[in-house]
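Need residues for this backbone.
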C-alpha cells in the first residue's frame, strides 16, 4: 500500500515552494519544485535495520530491492508483506519476512544511517565493507553501443521527477535493442537502483536480458548491488571508481562509464560491447 499524505511532502516525491529569482540583474517572485528527501526506516519483523534518506515514492519497490541487494532476502518470496506508513519523523516501511531472512538480518545487523552520498555509514569493521560476492555466470550476449546510445537519449523523457526538480538520480532497465522498459528515481543513486531492482523482480524481468543505465557515477556499491541481483551489464553516465572497476572485473560484470551520446569508456568485459 502507498503511504498516506505526509505533511509537506507531495505524493509524486516533490513539493512546490515560493522562491525569489534573480536573473540578468532583475528580481522576480516565482515557484520552484524541490525533490523530497525524508528519513525512511526499513523495518524487518519489527526490527529497524536501516534509516535511509530517500524520495518517498515507489517505496514498495525500494523495500524489495534493498532487501535483495543487501543480501537480507535470498529470494523475493521471503518477503511476505510490505506496509508503508507515515511517521512524524518520516516514513516507516514495515516488512514481514521469513524466519530465514530474519536470522540473516540478526547476523548482519548494524546501526546504519544512510545518506545520499555514502553507503558505509555505521559500518563497524573493514570486513563489512565488501563481504564475499558470488561472481556472475558467464554471459556472452553482445551489447550494442548504438542501442545503449538510444536508451540514453530516451531516458530523460522517463525522468518526470528530474524534469520537475533537477535534483534526482535515475536507474533504468533497458532491452538489448535499447528500449527503456523501467525507470525509478530518487535523490540517492543507491536508492534509485534498489527501487529499480524491486520493480524488475515484481515484473518478472530476467536481469541477464538487457542492461542497466544509471545517471550517476558507478561506485563499488552500485556494482555490488547490480551483481547481487544478477545484472550482467551496467552503464553509467559518469565515471566509475577504481574499486568499482576491480569489483566488476572479479565478478564478471560488463561495466561502461562516461556514456554520453555515442561515446563509452569500457572498463570491464569490453568484448561484450560489439
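Answer:
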Amino acid at each position: 500500500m502507498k503511504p498516506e499524505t505526509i505533511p509537506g511532502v507531495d505524493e509524486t516525491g516533490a513539493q512546490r515552494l515560493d522562491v525569489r529569482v534573480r536573473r540578468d540583474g532583475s528580481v522576480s517572485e516565482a515557484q520552484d519544485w524541490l525533490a523530497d528527501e525524508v528519513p525512511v526506516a526499513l523495518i524487518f519483523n519489527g526490527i529497524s535495520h536501516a534509516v535511509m534518506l530517500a524520495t518517498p515514492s515507489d517505496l514498495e519497490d525500494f523495500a524489495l530491492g534493498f532487501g535483495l541487494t543487501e543480501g537480507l532476502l535470498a529470494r523475493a518470496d521471503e518477503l511476505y508483506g510490505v506496509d508503508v506508513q507515515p511517521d512524524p519523523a518520516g516514513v516507516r516501511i514495515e516488512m514481514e519476512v521469513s524466519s530465514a531472512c530474519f536470522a540473516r538480518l540478526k547476523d548482519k545487523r548494524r546501526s546504519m544511517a544512510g545518506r545520499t552520498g555514502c553507503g558505509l555509514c555505521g559500518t563497524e569493521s573493514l570486513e563489512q565493507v565488501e563481504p564475499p560476492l558470488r561472481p556472475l555466470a558467464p554471459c556472452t550476449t553482445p551489447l550494442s553501443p548504438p542501442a545503449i546510445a538510444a536508451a540514453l537519449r530516451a531516458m530523460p523523457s522517463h525522468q518526470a521527477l528530474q524534469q520537475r526538480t533537477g535534483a534526482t538520480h535515475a536507474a533504468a532497465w533497458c532491452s538489448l535493442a535499447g528500449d527503456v522498459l523501467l525507470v525509478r528515481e530518487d535523490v540517492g543513486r543507491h536508492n534509485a537502483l534498489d527501487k529499480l531492482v524491486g520493480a524488475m523482480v515484481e515484473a518478472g524481468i530476467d536481469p541477464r536480458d538487457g542492461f542497466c543505465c544509471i545517471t550517476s557515477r558507478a561506485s563499488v556499491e552500485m556494482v555490488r548491488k547490480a551483481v547481487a541481483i544478477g545484472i550482467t551489464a551496467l552503464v553509467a553516465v559518469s565515471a566509475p571508481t577504481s574499486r568499482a572497476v576491480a569489483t566488476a572485473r572479479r565478478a564478471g560484470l560488463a561495466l561502461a562509464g562516461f556514456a554520453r551520446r555515442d561515446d563509452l569508456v569500457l572498463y570491464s568485459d569490453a568484448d561484450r560491447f560489439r
